[in-house]
Each structure stands twice: as C-alpha cells, then as structure tokens.
Amino acid sequence: xxxxxxxxxxxxxxxxxxxxxxxxxxxxxxxxxxxxxxxxxxxxxxxxxxxxxxxxxxxxxxxxxxxxxxxxxxxxxxxxxxxxxxxxxxxxxxxxxxxxxxxxxxxxxxxxxxxxxxxxxxxxxxxxxxxxxxxxxxxxxxxxxxxxxxxxxxxxxxxxxxxxxxxxxxxxxxxxxxxxxxxxxx
Length: 186
Hints:
This protein is mainly α. It is 62% helix and 0% strand.
C-alpha cells in the first residue's frame, strides 16, 4: 500500500510565498493610496481647431500647421524657440563634458592604476574586467551628474516644462528622479 504524505511547502518556498504576498499587499496599498490622492476630475481644456485645419476635400497640411501655430502667442513661441535652440547647444556641451570626464579619468594613468589594483585583488580576468568597467561607469556617472541635473531639472523648471521635485513627492511620498538622460532631451 502506497500512501502519500500530504504535500508540504519547504522553508524556502514558504519564504518566497510570504515575500510575494507582502509585495502584492504593498503594491495594492500603494494603488489605493494613489487613488485616494488623485486630483479631482477637472474638465480638460477644449481643443480649438482652426478653420484651416478642419478635415475637408482639398485639405492642405501646410495651411493647417500654420493655422495651429497662429494660435500660439508670440511670447510662448519665443520661449519655445529658445528652449529648443538651447537644446542644440546643450547637446554639444553634453558631449564636450563627457569627453572631458573621459579624459580626466583616462589620463595620468588613473585607469591603469585602477586596473593594476583590481588585478592584484582579483586573480580571474573576466570578473576583474567587470569590476574595472563598473568603477569607471560609476566615476563617469558621478562626474556627469551635476550637468545632468542642471539640464534635466533646473533648465526644465526655468522654462516651465516640469513640476517634479528632487525630494519626495507630496502626493505619494515617493522620490522623483527629476532628471532625464541627455539622450531624452529634445
């Protein structure tokens, strides 16, 4: 007679199930908290469609575009142009900043000293190479962080393009990064 013992979860499976349930309940509580603090449903602004932009036979894309642009105030247009034209200069400065950081890290034998120190401590080549790359990426990130924060947070606020904070958000209590990667900039 072959009787089977009732199935029992091992200790690691129980821990995994407990962690999963805790994570699930935390996420559910976060969703409920966000729903409770959601802004009231205000009517969205109405889209004004100029006569030249309405769909009809003989529709002209250029005329429609000009009609939409005519809706923008000259002050808003000048601000928009300054923001985007400044972005071109920032792309150049971002590249120059990164090249300067790379030269700083790679000149004077700094990278070679780092390599030698890692090779003395780590005998295997592949893990040592990963440590060297990780150290250089961390150093580059730290050195480029001020420029990234300036372009991605301060500049965005100066042009009224963001309402994010560098600290905890007042509505959710979560931290907001506040900065974008240079490649995400327009």
